[in-house]
Amino acid sequence: MPTASPSFQPVAQQGIGQPLYRVVMRRLLGAIESGDLEPGTALPSERVLASQFEVSIGTLRQAVGELVAGHILVRRQGRGTYVAQHNAERFLFQFFHVERTDGLREVPELETLSFERGHLDEEQADALQTRAGSAAITIENRLRLQGRPVVLDRLTLPAAMFKGLTESRLRSRPSTIYRFYQDEYGITVARALERVRAVAADRHVARQLGVVPGAPMLQVRRTALSIGDKPVEYRVSTISTGLHEYVHSLTRPA
Question: Is residue 44 part of a domain?
Answer without folding.
Answer: yes
